Amino acid sequence: MSKETEKQRWQRNFADLLQELRVAQTGVQILFAFLLTLPFSAGFDDTTQFQRDVYIVALLAAAGATAMIISPVAFHRALFRQGRKPELVRFAHRMASGGLAFMLIAMVSSVLLITDFVLARPIAFVLSAVAGLWFLTLWMILPFARRNWGEDDIDDDDDPSGLNQG
Predict the structure, then answer these.
(1) Which of 12, 19, 43, 80 has the greatest number of CB atoms lying within 10 Å of its CB?
(2) What's the CA gap between 92 and 14, in Å, rounded?
(3) Beta carbons within 8 Å of 49's beta carbon, 6+ residues apart
(4) What's the average model confidence in pLDDT over 97-125?
(5) 4 in the Ramachandran plot: left (φ > 0), alpha (ψ -120 to 50) or beta?
(6) Which residues span the membrane (predicted)?
(7) What's 155's DSSP letter?
(8) Interval 36-91: pLDDT, tens
């Protein structure tokens, strides 16, 4: 099996990023759609000013996440066939990271909004903090800690043992 070229590596990295963005995009679009319909539901008039403020934070964070997660598509269109895949991959990586940060804010704000509506505010704050820590652990702490657990400079698809070379 031949070693991939630099161009093939950038292409594969971009394809990997796009697959990740597809997963994130689905989640953020479902949340965003829910948040867009919320003010038109019957119980929204019963919300407090605090809850409406939290709603706006969640809505804007979901909008920001949506924009950032979809932006690599527009960037790809602008750079199509210009041989600038490395620039595109770096941009898409930054947008995916930023989009996940905004999605975390949207998720935690949504948890706070709903729990504050149905439970006492102190309990809502505790549950939202737990949700935030859970997301931070799964989305940032574990992945970044894991970066230092394995071999250096080995790509996901590299197999130093040679066992998976079909």
Answers:
(1) 12
(2) 8
(3) none
(4) 96
(5) beta
(6) 21-42, 54-75, 96-117, 123-142
(7) -
(8) 999 999 989 999 999 999 999 999 999 999 999 888 888 877 777 777 777 888 88
CB 13 within 8 A of CB 72: no
Count Cβ atoms below 10 Å from residue 10 Cβ, excluding itself.
19
Lookup: tokens for 154:
């080995």
Give the predicted TM-score (pTM) of the model.
0.79
Structure tokens at 5: 């070229």
CB 67, CB 21: distance < 8 Å: no
Phi-psi region of 154 (alpha: psi -120 to 50; beta: other; left: phi over 0): beta
State the burial class of residue 57 (Cβ atoms within 10 Å of its Cβ: 0-12, 13-18, 19+): middle
In the 8-state DSSP scheme, what is residue 143?
H
